[in-house]
Amino acid sequence: MHLLILPVSCILFILLRSLFHHDLIINLWILVWAVDAFIVVLTVISIFQLIIAIRKKRHPRLGILLAALIVSGSLSYGTDLLKDLGLQLRFYRLKPEYSEIVAMLQSGSISQKGTHHGIPYKSENEPEFRVSFSWGGIIDNWHGVIYDPSGRIMRCNKSDPRFPGQGPRDDEELGKIRMIFGGTLYKAEPLGNYWYLCWFT
After folding, report:
1. 3-class DSSP state for residue 77?
2. How far is 133 from 122, CA to CA, in rounded Å?
3. CA 45 to each of CA 25, 65, 66: distance values in angstroms, whole numbers, following the listed order
4. Which pLDDT score is estimated for 167?
């Protein structure tokens, strides 16, 4: 049984690290690399431990655990699949509260900026009605969800302002879109029904 403790713990660490990766970056910043290093070291130790145990034929199901460990590690560190899943799960968990805030803003029953049910929000009416829900960040470097019925927020993906000179130049409308809610908008991903996950710098 003790052979299973470390590999199973590593798989759990890997999955949690992926699902909450953006939260770790926001809260730990550069220290997130220490977390990754810790997980990688434990994973390498677990892999060698499992290989030795398999060669000694201590447990017939250790091969399945080894495969699960390798697959989870590959998905976590080699792709954004689990990270994206974590972001989407967070959004859908908060979506009912977000939708309620948007409806109250549209009816004029709450102020354009504030906190409702513990959720901070900001809204803009010019040139378009939009609402932002921050998921954290440092100064003007932040990411979060934006409600944009116009859908024009997706235009920000035409070029990356972090690398000027690469891609087409911003026109007047795109320049205004980039400056919404503070910071400079450089990436937006659709979440469905006018909701977008956005990154600012």
Report:
1. helix
2. 7
3. 25, 14, 12
4. 55
Q: Could you identify the residue written with the tokens 């431990």?
A: 49
Listed residues 64, 79, 94: the one ending a domain: 79
Q: pTM surpassing 0.85? A: no
Write out the two tokens for 104: 């109250």
What's the total number of domains in the chain?
A: 2
Please give the C-alpha separations between residue 144 and each of 41, 58, 81, 86, 134, in angstroms, as whole numbers: 32, 48, 18, 13, 4
Which tokens is 121 given? 């929000």
What are 149-201's pLDDT values in tens digits? 998 888 888 766 555 555 556 667 777 888 888 778 888 889 988 999 998 88
Q: Which positions ≥6 away from 181 have C-beta within 8 Å? A: 122, 124, 130, 132, 146, 200
Domain end: 36, 57, 79, which one?
79
Query: How high does pLDDT run on average in the chain?
Result: 82
